[in-house]
Amino acid sequence: MGGKSTGKMFKGDTLLLGFVGVLVLAGGVRLATLWDSSEQSYPEYNYRATRRVLHAVERASQLLEEKGVEAFEAFEGSDFKNDDFYIYVYRYEDSGCLYHGGNPDLVGQAGARFHDLQGRSVHESVLEQLQNPNNPYGWVHYNWNRPGEILAEWKSSCNRDVTLPDGTRLYVGGGLNWPVPEVEFARIAVESAADLLESGAPGALESLRSASGPFNFMESEVFLLEEDGMSILDPAFRGLESRNVLDYRDASGRYPFRLLYQKLQARENAWVPLYGRVPQSMNLKEKYVYARRASMDGRPVVVGMAMNKPTQLWQK
Amino acid sequence: MSDLIYAQEDVPPPLQLGLLSIQQGVLLFLGTMLPIILVAAIGGSQEMAVRMVSLTMIASGIGTILQALRLRGFGSGYLCPNVGGPSYLTVSMNAAMLGGLPLMQGMVVFSGFVEMLLARVVGRLRFLFPPVVVGLTVMMVGISIIPVSFSNFLGSPMAGDAILWQDIAVGSVALLVMVGLNIWGKGNAKLYSLLVGVLVGWVLALFISPFSSEKYLAIAEAQLFSLPFIGFSQFRLAFDWSLALPFFVISICGSLKTFGNLLAAQKITRPDLEGPDMKPLVGGLTADGFSTALAGFIGGIAVDTSSSNVGLAAATGAVSRWIGVATGILFMVLGCFPVVAAVISSMPTAVMGAAMVFAVSFMIVTGVQEMLSEKMDQRKIFTAGLAMIFGLSSGLVPEPFAQLPEFLQPIFSNPLTSTTILSIFFYHIFHADITYQQWKAGREGAKD
Prior knowledge:
Strand content of chain B: under 5%
Shape of chain B: globular
Number of helices of chain B: 19
Distance between the termini of chain A: 43 Å
Oligomer: heterodimer
Largest sheet of chain B: 2 strands, antiparallel
Radius of gyration of chain B: 22 Å
Order of helices and strands of chain B: HHHEHHHHHHHHHEHHHHHHH
Number of strands of chain B: 2
Order of helices and strands of chain A: HHEEHEEEHHEEEEHEEE
Radius of gyration of chain A: 25 Å
Number of helices of chain A: 6
Shape of chain A: globular
Strand order of the largest sheet of chain B: 1-2
């Protein structure tokens, strides 16, 4: 047992060296051929499913622009329809459904007829978000049941404006089957809310408050605070406006909003952790709070949102 | 267990030494992802992430070398490499978010000193660690890595995220190659089974997995050479009493884990030993604490001994401490060559997962073998059985433990800590009568 090695080559070492050499060569050649075909990486998204559906929608829009409605045949493949997401295509003009990978029964029906559990018109939401510069991939969120299932769950879909070769304007979207709490969704909602407030548009505050608006989804909602910490739209309790959030601790004993305000003194926007309790567990559930400084009616405010923190599988 | 090819004091020939240290280094690279995760969480820049990766690699390298040395009371003399410690990740993130990097660094230094103090205490507690307790601890260290190993094997998805068949295929093929070469391979094929498996998996991934050039572009964009020092401001430290308790608890967990790793390394390196030799273990714990403190001081994340690397040593039979020295030097040097870190970090996660599963298998079975090295009577059976059941329950069924009094909760916060503490408790309870007899006999002998 043990002993110093003489460095002597065992029988088969030459074979092994040759095998390793072939592998390195094959890998190098393959890398060279793949280089130009690389998929966009979407680094702002944490979940693979999200990146896959974004890629699928991008690819679907290219196919539609090239082939028109003949592209629908390709949408039946697993790249566009699988356990994680599906593709759909609606006409801009009359919200007519031209293709739906998740529920083919919807083809021919007007998307504008459908409202989710909160009364949200999904078609209107898509058209609105396709114009939103803060939302480059046209994300919308809605509460919907899967075909045949009794309970509803949050769904998210990304969308893209497309014009067919015959000039028909439509949008192609990808619907995720599972809710994924991307922190990018919080950023989009907060930036959009801040822009809305700063535009001085009438009903801006009501829009932030609305349960069927784009600022309320996946059990998260945009909050609004005064410069001194008093809540206008409370981060935790909608009905409990006008309390000073700087006085409140989270489940870890820290003051997250004091930290947030500290950070916002030096910069326009900030992320801070916020801990809640996992029911019946000694573990804490971590959320991210994203917030930025904005102005409403000429006075400084803080707009933000808390989202569940994405966790690695092994961190659960 | 693999026959030893390179024993503790053997010095492999230069080429072998280089390849074996690269093989050890491949597993250590998983720890280099942790600074990237932390910096992303605190909204830091790419430059900060690269610098922190480099500093962590330097600290890992120094820690690995110190561990391999046998200075007076410092270092175990075993091949027990250091890596960025995942157990410190969450508390470090919180500290960094609360008070910036100086606070994170200061608290990590504090943890290092706690570990060094604990090492002094552990040295006097040999009687607490009979083989059944030692074996259980080593086994639990391996079991504690199962979540991260398996998660990486699946391509490291987020909780609730899509799992790609390509990742499972790549991980499976890589693992099969590693295991196959380790079982049936001879000479170098067995010695480098992990490296060959990694290469096979990597090339397979290039052929079947969705490709993104981002990781490979990072290689082209990485600096060739860079000293990760930005001036004396890098060494600013802060402290916050509100973080002392969580870091103290993590230090204890870290010390227990290192203790388990060192026990396993000792068992693998010196299978002739009948019970733990505490001197190298105390020296190893002290070196580990020092490395943690050093990592914090220079601006890296906390480092810890790596269980999977100990498992790899067992798998290959290459346990020479000089491999540790070479690995440490390699890592320190690579810390100053960001381009090399970029190359290794482009390795598919499923391949890394396969490597971890391969290495951790040995860790777990080493523990089982140690547990069964003595005849298992009823007392030992219940020591091991009850400790495992109640200790593992804290991870498998955590809800009831949330209702424990607060002072007990840290003990049951993770299965490794709870199983180890419970095994010590049960062992001495079930052997109380024997201990009393021995004490009484000792007293009567002394009177005579």
